[in-house]
């Protein structure tokens, strides 16, 4: 569904991605790696928020390398950004609806999707009138996930979704992702590698903007290097 | 909580009392105040829209209106089109003109600090007014229209009624914009863009287009108003300048992004000013009332929020 | 002084070029310069006009004086409109003391700033109190000539800035034997344009003469609002320094009395005015709309004639000749110089009283330049 | 850190320092040049410096994130104070200017107590409104201020001697520039920048936001009033339109942006370029030069958003921020390589 | 030896009671874990103590002194220091200068001393290239800077609001070691908010649980985590 070929990107003079290639089909893919490895940057290039210096991105058989962000989203890519990027002065409800309204897939049956999201995060239903900016850190994360789901994406990208979530909800979120990956593509970055390996089919380890290791979940879980670097806690 | 309620009730009753006194003692002051408020609101509302969504203090706001008024003037002189009718073609032309200004200049500074756009629009204002000055000279122009002097008599007082078009225009602007923002997809998207452009992109909103359209729509409104402005006022290249500042003040008094409050603020200031002017030798103090009220309202709001 | 034979004689002109007054003033001055050159120049030398924009700002205006004096080394200063700018220029002018023929600045403060014993300083434009006095004279003359016209009760609507409030205080002082009241308004020129309060007060006062002292931008809206509240005093006088484009076309203009120094109708009674008018029309293809045009035109010619008479550029000699000036001007009258309250060389003092009739400004006083009889009383709105 | 790093750092630092010295010398020459270039240059220089002082002082405040649109207000207030003191109380020129500035500073302090809880656009509008209020008071308080006509200063500063006048402005400029640079290096710089960046973080780091803002607002307003007093006494009069002209707010903002904000040298360079350019333009395009002026402002903002000085910094100076800092080097010398 | 104590500390936003009558005492040498569901009021509780919000009701005492009405900057100077859940570096200051602010204002040093102290602290925490802009830092560095900023205020009481969120396990271990070391060396009272139970167990010696603004449990983790309410409200099946 998504295929990235030899992606290179930089912020000014700082080269961050040194030619990365990666594929996401149906099912789920995990991106792991130390801080500053370039995971978020990679996601931003997929979305078109950071331009590629060279390389190619194909989504759903369309070359989207130079398309603007909103077009990519309308093609079916949704993201839960690391920084959440909510609309602080809109209510929880409005934030959710706007996540659906501007995408062809999400627009179809908003009440239905809304129910699904509220079922996953009951607190959002409870707080549907509260301004998003006044939610607690973890509640905001839930709202960001909910908003991405509202678009009914073909590919769901989650940048460290468990950050700041309480353990029970993290657990639940991963259960849901596990279920979702049967229907849509999921690309996820996580520091919580142990929990994510439960969900992903395939994983890539990125260091310094290069893929240093890849394999399916069991291979990675049993790889002693991965064990040492990422599964300590 | 309860004290703030008491304060609010006291404030309301004081206001009501004042209005009643005005009706009894000086009814025309109330009438002129409302008419005046209409002008303020109609000019300030489009500015509030731009400030709330594109986050730009458009210092060329009044100049855009000036350009529109000149357009209406020449449409009237060449084609004999009444300015109230030419408001429509002027509005369309100004929509395109607004888009053009946005695309050629402002768009390229959106990522720069806020002040850059401020000074940029200051440059635009300068270019607009000075260009018009070169073409049309500084000599004021005005169409002489009979209906502008339409009057009504109530008891033993006569007053102009034409000026009620201004509050009407302002209310139409307000309602149309509110419906647009709450009901249409573009409007809702615009609100989102105003709060978080990055977030808006990732839910599939075309942010650049939204900015451009909002700027265009605001330019269109101010363009339409240019035609109305021409019916009552003389126009000259510098005529817009003072309205830029006043609109800016009104928008701040209302609270950024709050369109209905712009109308309310205009009403307050319009009535306050015309009440002062109704007092003999009060006129030189009218601008004082304007600015003092603005400062007081802004301060009171900030104190209320803090407590 | 610094210039030698064959070099041009230089006039340094400072006007606000972005304003219609300065725009037309400077262009009219250029016509005068061309005329002089066509007739062989001055003292056998060509004349030249260097114009600098004052941008309506005192600091720019002062810098312009400094530049003209030192870099362009002009022989004379001409120009001027606003008092505010002039106040900033006066200290610099005083350091050079070049012969100056000023076409603007009505404020008595400017006269104070110039001070006594400055014989190089010639002020063409009347001071605020000159204008006031000339109105007294004019109205008394009119009241005498036309006994049906009564002028006992006055109401003055004045713009709240320097121009309007000076007019009001001058009028108050000069018309002290009459009933007089007034009220300020904010001119449309500075963002105002709401005259309802003033007009209501005026209507309640019920004056014989209603005068408004504002700017050209106020003219039509003020009339429209008067009509809206049905305020039609027997004498409706406007005293702005200029009028808006095509004011006469409006039926509201009919019978409005005005103060002014010049109007195209003067062409009928003054050949100089006609020559000037035709010259301006043919060169710039637009009508001179403000009296700053004939005034600036006159300023150049007055100096040129004095130099011609003196036969030298020597300052003392030229000043002496200037003081003897008898210049028949495009404004109708013959300009001479004599002391005013403070300075020794004041030119024009008299304003004219005119009236809009059939879309034209007709002179009704001074009677020697009169092009028409006054219409009295002001036609009520309902009969238009 | 490697010794290669160290060498490169020392080399680049030395290079930057030399470049700075060159600019300083050029700047000093430019500042003194009008003394030898005739009275026209001095009168232009004098107004360039007026705007320069306004722009630098405005920048000093904006470093805290507080955007003032009230420059013209304190400029005018200072002018009126200095004029009224001189005309009504016979206080000699320079003393009146300084006293006027101090008085305005006190007024600013008092107002600051109330308005400095406002932020962003709200603060900006309030300062704009205050400027208008000052103007209206001066306009209507006729017995003291001369009302709409304005008031004459009894004696123009230095009896119109353009050398002394310009010299006086140069002294003011040097003082204000020095103050601005001092502030950039002192404790208050960190307080103001922190307030600018994030107030919650700033207070949590122990910064008294209110006190710091109050201090800088009063100082900056006094400086603007000082410039206004100088202006009134050099041109010999005050009037509501001239001394509270909106240009004294807008032009300094444009200057600061043109030159580069959050620095001393940006506004200084901006004032010189815009001031001199304005004079040149109008000689070549007498009718319509302001159109060109406006276009130039637009072009600069489009193509040099960080201002002239920003471009110079990026293009000419070496960026040393990725080298170890002086403190790091000292510490690693005394302690060896850090863990 | 310092002690922080809250009495009936309560704040409501509109109708929502975010922190509800919380009584807590925290002494030097203690490392307290603060856990609870998202939106339980943990961050708000810290904000109340640091003076960012004023409580609707209740009192905060530091060493017996009532500091409830004191402004935040005074409390910082008195030794209450905290990191932010949503990190906002002062982006117009360099890394070194960010850390300096604490020394300059809370610890009231002069510029020269503050520079040196900040540099020393940064190197201590493994931060280098101190002249960098903060936008060039990665998460680990940002978090270290955040801790350094808090330490520069010379705290007696230190609150860490999810400082370890986003660190990988190696980094987290390193951070735990660091915090323990500092707390011990400076005899601090530390309050730690984290959602990763591994961190809580290995770092803290006492835990409180907030739920709906109320303090529902207080004690060692082993004890608290057996509490039914904690299990259902917070941990779920994830333990
Ligand atoms: N806007 C930016 N400007 C400059 N450098 C940046 C910017 N954003 C990120 N970087 C740098 O790019 C590198 C990669 O950052 P990125 O955020 O992609 O890493 P990551 O793998 O997502 O790490 P984390 O786990 O910390 O989120 C880092 O060194 C970071 O400092
Ligand atoms: N300014 C505010 N206005 C309204 N409600 C608020 C405001 N600030 C916080 N809240 C509410 O107060 C509650 C407590 O928020 P707080 O940020 O303290 O939670 P938290 O325990 O830190 O959660 P998390 O683990 O998600 O960070 C939340 O329900 C939040 O929505
Ligand atoms: C009549 C005009 C010359 C008025 C001008 N504004 C002045 O101040 O003098
Ligand atoms: Mg990341
Ligand atoms: Mg929290």
Automatic annotation (TrEMBL), chain A:
The keyword ATP-binding applies. Pfam families: ABC_tran (PF00005). SUPFAM superfamilies: P-loop containing nucleoside triphosphate hydrolases. SMART domains: AAA (SM00382). GO terms for molecular function: ATP binding; ATP hydrolysis activity; branched-chain amino acid transmembrane transporter activity. Residues 2-233 form the ABC transporter domain. Gene3D superfamilies: P-loop containing nucleotide triphosphate hydrolases. Keywords: Amino-acid transport, ATP-binding, Nucleotide-binding, Transport. One of its GO terms (biological process) is L-amino acid transport. PANTHER family: HIGH-AFFINITY BRANCHED-CHAIN AMINO ACID TRANSPORT ATP-BINDING PROTEIN LIVF. Belongs to the ABC transporter superfamily. This is Branched-chain amino acid transport ATP-binding protein LivF. It comes from Salinispira pacifica.
UniProtKB/TrEMBL annotation, chain B:
Belongs to the binding-protein-dependent transport system permease family. LivHM subfamily. Its main location: membrane. It comes from Salinispira pacifica. It is a multi-pass membrane protein. The keyword Repeat does not apply. InterPro entries: ABC_transp_permease, BCAA_transport_permease. GO terms for molecular function: transmembrane transporter activity. Signal peptide: none annotated. GO terms for biological process: amino acid transport. Keywords: Amino-acid transport, Cell membrane, Membrane, Transmembrane, Transmembrane helix, Transport. It is found in: Cell membrane. This is High-affinity branched-chain amino acid transport system permease protein LivH. The keyword Isomerase does not apply. Pfam families: BPD_transp_2 (PF02653). One of its GO terms (cellular component) is plasma membrane. The chain crosses the membrane at residues 6-25, 37-57, 84-106, 118-137, 157-181, 209-230, 250-271, 283-303.
From TrEMBL, chain D:
The keyword Secreted does not apply. One of its GO terms (cellular component) is plasma membrane. It is a multi-pass membrane protein. Keywords: Cell membrane, Membrane, Transmembrane, Transmembrane helix. Pfam families: BPD_transp_2 (PF02653). InterPro entries: ABC_transp_permease, LivM-like. CDD domains: TM_PBP1_LivM_like. GO terms for molecular function: branched-chain amino acid transmembrane transporter activity. The chain crosses the membrane at residues 21-37, 69-87, 93-115, 122-142, 162-180, 213-238, 250-278, 290-312. The keyword GTP-binding does not apply. Its main location: membrane. It is found in: Cell membrane. This is Branched-chain amino acid transport system permease protein LivM. It comes from Salinispira pacifica. The lineage of its organism: Bacteria, Pseudomonadati, Spirochaetota, Spirochaetia, Spirochaetales.
UniProtKB/TrEMBL annotation, chain E:
The keyword Transport applies. One of its GO terms (cellular component) is plasma membrane. GO terms for molecular function: ATP binding; ATP hydrolysis activity; L-isoleucine transmembrane transporter activity; L-phenylalanine transmembrane transporter activity; L-valine transmembrane transporter activity. The keyword Nucleotide-binding applies. Coiled coil: none annotated. Residues 4-237 form the ABC transporter domain. Keywords: ATP-binding, Nucleotide-binding, Transport. This is Branched-chain amino acid transport ATP-binding protein LivG. It comes from Salinispira pacifica. The lineage of its organism: Bacteria, Pseudomonadati, Spirochaetota, Spirochaetia, Spirochaetales.
């Amino acid at each position: 569904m998504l295929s990235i070929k030899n992606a290179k990107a930089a912020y000014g003079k700082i080269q961050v991605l040194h030619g990365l290639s990666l594929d996401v089909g149906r099912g789920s893919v995990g991106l792991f790696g130390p801080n500053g490895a370039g995971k978020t940057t990679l996601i931003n290039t997929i979305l078109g928020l950071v331009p590629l210096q060279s390389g190619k991105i194909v989504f759903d058989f369309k070359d989207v390398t130079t398309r603007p962000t909103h077009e990519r989203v309308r093609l079916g890519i949704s993201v839960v950004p690391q920084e959440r990027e909510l609309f602080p002065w809109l209510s929880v409800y409005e934030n959710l609806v706007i996540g659906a309204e501007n995408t062809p897939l999400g627009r179809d049956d908003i009440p239905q999707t809304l129910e699904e999201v509220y079922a996953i995060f009951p607190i959002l239903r409870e707080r549907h009138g509260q301004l998003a900016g006044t939610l607690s850190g973890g509640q905001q994360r839930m709202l960001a996930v909910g908003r991405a789901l509202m678009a009914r994406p073909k590919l769901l990208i989650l940048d460290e979704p468990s950050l700041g979530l309480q353990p029970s909800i993290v657990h639940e979120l991963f259960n849901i992702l596990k279920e979702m990956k049967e229907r849509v593509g999921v690309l996820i970055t996580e520091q919580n590698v142990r929990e994510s390996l439960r969900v992903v089919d395939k994983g890539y380890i990125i260091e310094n903007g290069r893929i240093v290791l890849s394999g399916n979940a069991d291979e990675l879980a049993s790889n002693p290097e991965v064990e040492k670097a990422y599964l300590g806690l | 909580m309860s004290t703030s309620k008491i304060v609010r009730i006291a404030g309301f009753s004081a206001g009501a009392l004042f209005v009643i006194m005005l009706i009894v003692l000086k009814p025309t002051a109330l009438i002129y105040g409302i008419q005046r408020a209409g002008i303020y609101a109609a000019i300030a509302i489009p500015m509030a829209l731009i400030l709330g969504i594109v986050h730009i203090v458009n210092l060329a706001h009044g100049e855009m209106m000036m350009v529109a008024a000149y357009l209406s003037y020449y449409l009237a002189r060449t084609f004999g089109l009444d300015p109230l009718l030419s408001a429509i073609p002027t509005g369309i032309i100004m929509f395109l003109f607004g888009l053009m200004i946005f695309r050629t200049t402002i768009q390229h500074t959106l990522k720069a600090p806020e002040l850059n756009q401020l000074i940029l629009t200051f440059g635009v204002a300068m270019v607009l007014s000075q260009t018009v000055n070169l073409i049309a000279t500084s000599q004021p122009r005005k169409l002489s229209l009979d209906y502008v002097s339409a009057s009504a008599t109530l008891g033993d007082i006569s007053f102009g009624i034409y000026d009620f078009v201004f509050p009407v225009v302002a209310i139409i602007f307000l309602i149309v914009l509110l419906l647009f923002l709450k009901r249409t997809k573009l409007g809702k998207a615009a609100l989102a863009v105003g709060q978080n452009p990055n977030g808006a992109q990732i839910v599939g909103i075309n942010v650049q287009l939204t900015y451009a359209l909002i700027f265009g729509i605001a330019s269109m409104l101010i363009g339409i108003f240019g035609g109305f402005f021409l019916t009552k006022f003389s126009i000259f290249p510098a005529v817009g300048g003072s309205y830029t500042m006043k609109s800016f003040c009104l928008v701040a008094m209302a609270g950024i992004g709050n369109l209905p409050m712009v109308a309310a603020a205009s009403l307050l200031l319009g009535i306050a000013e015309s009440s002062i002017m109704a007092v003999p030798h009060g006129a030189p103090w009218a601008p004082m009332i304007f600015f003092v009220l603005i400062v007081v309202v802004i301060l009171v709001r900030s104190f209320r929020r803090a407590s | 002084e610094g210039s030698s034979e064959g070099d041009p004689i230089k006039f340094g002109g400072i006007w606000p070029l972005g304003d219609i007054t300065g725009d037309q003033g400077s262009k009219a001055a250029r016509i005068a310069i061309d005329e002089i050159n066509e007739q062989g120049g001055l003292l056998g030398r060509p004349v030249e006009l260097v114009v600098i924009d004052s941008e309506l700002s005192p600091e720019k205006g002062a810098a312009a004086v400094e530049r003209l004096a030192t870099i362009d080394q002009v022989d004379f200063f001409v120009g001027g409109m606003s008092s505010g700018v002039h106040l900033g220029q006066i200290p610099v002018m005083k350091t050079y003391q070049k012969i100056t023929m000023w076409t603007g600045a009505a404020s008595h403060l400017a006269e104070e700033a110039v001070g006594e014993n400055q014989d190089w300083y010639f002020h063409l434009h009347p001071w605020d109190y000159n204008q006031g006095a000339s109105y007294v004279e004019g109205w008394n003359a009119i009241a005498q000539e036309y006994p049906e016209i009564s002028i006992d009760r006055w109401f003055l609507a004045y713009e709240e800035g320097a121009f309007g409030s000076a007019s009001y205080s001058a009028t108050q002082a000069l018309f002290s034997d009459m009933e007089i009241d007034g009220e300020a308004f904010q001119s449309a020129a500075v963002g105002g344009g709401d005259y309802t309060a003033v007009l209501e007060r005026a209507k309640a006062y019920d004056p014989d003469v209603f005068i408004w002292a504002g700017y050209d931008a106020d003219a039509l809206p003020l009339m429209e609002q008067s009509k809206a509240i049905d305020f039609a005093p027997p004498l409706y006088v406007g005293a702005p320094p200029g009028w808006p484009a095509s004011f006469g076309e409006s039926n509201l203009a009919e019978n409005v009395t005005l103060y002014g120094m010049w109007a195209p109708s003067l062409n009928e009674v003054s050949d100089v005015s006609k020559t000037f008018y035709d010259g301006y029309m043919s060169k710039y293809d637009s009508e001179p709309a403000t009296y700053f045009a004939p005034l600036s035109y006159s300023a150049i010619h007055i100096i040129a004639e004095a130099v011609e008479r003196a036969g030298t550029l020597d300052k003392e000699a030229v000043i002496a000749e200037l003081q003897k000036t008898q210049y028949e001007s495009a404004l109708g009258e013959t300009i001479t110089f004599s002391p005013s309250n403070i300075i020794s060389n004041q030119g024009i003092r008299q304003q004219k009283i005119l009236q809009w009739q059939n879309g034209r400004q007709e002179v009704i006083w001074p009677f020697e330049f009169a092009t028409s009889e006054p219409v009295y009383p002001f036609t009520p709105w309902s009969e238009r | 850190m490697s010794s290669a790093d160290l060498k490169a750092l020392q080399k680049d630092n030395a290079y930057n320092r030399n470049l700075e010295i060159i600019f300083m010398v050029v700047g000093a020459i430019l500042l003194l040049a009008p003394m030898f270039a005739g009275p026209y240059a001095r009168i232009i220089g004098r107004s360039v410096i007026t705007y320069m002082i306004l722009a630098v002082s405005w920048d000093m405040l904006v470093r805290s994130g507080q955007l003032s649109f009230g420059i013209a207000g304190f400029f005018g207030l200072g002018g009126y104070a200095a004029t009224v003191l001189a005309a009504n109380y016979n206080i000699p020129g320079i003393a009146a200017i300084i006293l006027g500035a101090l008085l305005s500073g006190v007024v600013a302090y008092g107002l600051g107590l109330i308005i400095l809880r406002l932020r962003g656009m709200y603060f900006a509008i309030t300062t704009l409104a205050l400027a208008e209020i000052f103007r209206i008071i001066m306009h209507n308080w006729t017995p003291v201020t001369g009302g709409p006509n304005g008031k004459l200063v009894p004696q123009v500063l230095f009896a119109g001697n353009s050398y002394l006048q310009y010299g006086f402005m140069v002294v003011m400029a040097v003082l204000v520039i020095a103050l601005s640079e001092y502030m950039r290096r002192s404790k208050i710089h960190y307080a103001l920048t922190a307030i600018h960046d994030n107030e919650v973080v700033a207070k949590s780091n122990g910064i008294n936001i209110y006190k710091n803002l109050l201090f800088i607002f009063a100082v900056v307003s006094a400086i603007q009033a000082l410039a206004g007093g100088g202006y009134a006494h050099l041109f010999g009069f005050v009037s509501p339109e001239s001394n509270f002209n909106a240009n004294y707010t807008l032009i300094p903002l444009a200057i600061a942006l043109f030159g580069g904000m959050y620095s001393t040298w940006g506004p200084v360079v901006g004032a010189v370029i815009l001031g001199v350019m304005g004079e040149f333009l109008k000689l070549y395009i007498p009718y319509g030069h302001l159109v060109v002026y406006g276009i130039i402002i637009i072009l600069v903002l489009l193509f040099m958003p960080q201002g002239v000085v920003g471009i110079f910094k990026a293009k000419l100076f070496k960026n040393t921020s990725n080298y170890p800092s002086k403190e790091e080097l000292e510490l690693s010398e005394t302690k060896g390589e850090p863990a | 030896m310092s002690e922080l104590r809250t009495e009936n500390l309560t704040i409501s936003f509109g109708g929502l009671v975010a922190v509800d009558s919380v009584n807590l005492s925290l002494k030097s040498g203690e490392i307290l874990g603060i856990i609870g569901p998202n939106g339980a009021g943990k961050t708000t509780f810290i904000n109340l103590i640091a003076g960012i919000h004023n409580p609707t009701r209740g009192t905060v005492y530091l060493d017996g002194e009532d500091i409830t009405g004191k402004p935040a900057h005074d409390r910082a100077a008195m030794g209450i220091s905290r990191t932010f859940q949503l990190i906002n570096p002062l982006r117009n200051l360099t890394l070194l200068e960010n850390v300096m602010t604490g020394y300059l204002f809370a610890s009231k040093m002069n510029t020269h001393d503050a520079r040196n102290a900040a540099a020393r602290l940064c190197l201590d925490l493994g931060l280098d290239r101190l002249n960098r802009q903060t936008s060039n830092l990665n998460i680990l560095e940002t978090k270290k800077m955040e801790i350094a900023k808090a330490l520069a205020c010379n705290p007696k009481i230190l609150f860490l609001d999810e400082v370890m969120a986003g660190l990988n396990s190696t980094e987290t271990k390193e951070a735990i070691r660091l915090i323990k070391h500092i707390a011990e060396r400076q005899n601090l009272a530390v309050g730690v908010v984290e959602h990763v139970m591994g961190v809580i167990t290995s770092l803290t010696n006492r835990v409180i649980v907030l739920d709906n603004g109320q303090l529902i449990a207080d004690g060692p983790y082993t004890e608290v985590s057996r509490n039914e309410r904690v299990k259902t409200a917070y941990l779920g099946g994830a333990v």
